Every structure is written in C-alpha cells, then in structure tokens.
Amino acid sequence: MELQNTEEIRNGILQSWLRNAWVYPMQGPNEQTFLRLTPGGRLKMRRRIGELESSLGESGEELAKQEEAGTLTADHDRLELAMMVQAYSSERRFIQSQGGSLGTPAVTYEQEGPAPQEGIQPPG
Fold it and tell me: Is residue 117 part of a domain?
C-alpha cells in the first residue's frame, strides 16, 4: 500500500463526499468555487462524526484544531473527522448567518482566524 500525503488524503475525502452527494459545488464571489453540504450530507456527517469520535476515542473538535494548526498526522480517519467537524461547523455558521434556524449542533467548533466566506473551499 502506497503512503499518501495529507493533500492526497484530503482530495480523496472530498472526492468521496462529492460521489456520495454529501456536498455540491457552488459559485462564490470572485469566481471562486466552494463546496456546500447538502441537507442529507449534514445529517450523514453528524452521524459519521459521532461514529469516528467513538471508534478513534478522540474529539473531532481537538483534531480540527490540530488540522488547522498543521500538526495533525496524515491518518485518513483522523483527517476525515477533522474535516467533517470543520465542514459541518462552517455550514451551520453559514446557514445561521443567512437567517436559517437549526437544531442542536453535533459539535461546536469555533474556527480561529477569519471565517470562510462560504462552505468548503476545494483544493486548487
């Protein structure tokens, strides 16, 4: 089995989210493309966050902080959990900023630094 770097793993995870219709591309300002979570994707992601936290025995919020700081190891499940927490939290903030009402969050991750304008920014 070939070792992959973090960017290859991240790209693979985003591709699987696209294939499984958890996300869809959306045109943003300045002709940027962002990935937004589908309503079904949000629900599936909530469930998967809980499953991964339980199986890994680690907090998704803590892994998201490590990923943001660039200190997370290139492990598929840990990286996917971190990305899910970031994507789920970002989507909730975006929906709420547009006046949407949502129930209790699966995680409460507050991103440090500037918040993304919309959704998930796909790689290059």
Answer: no
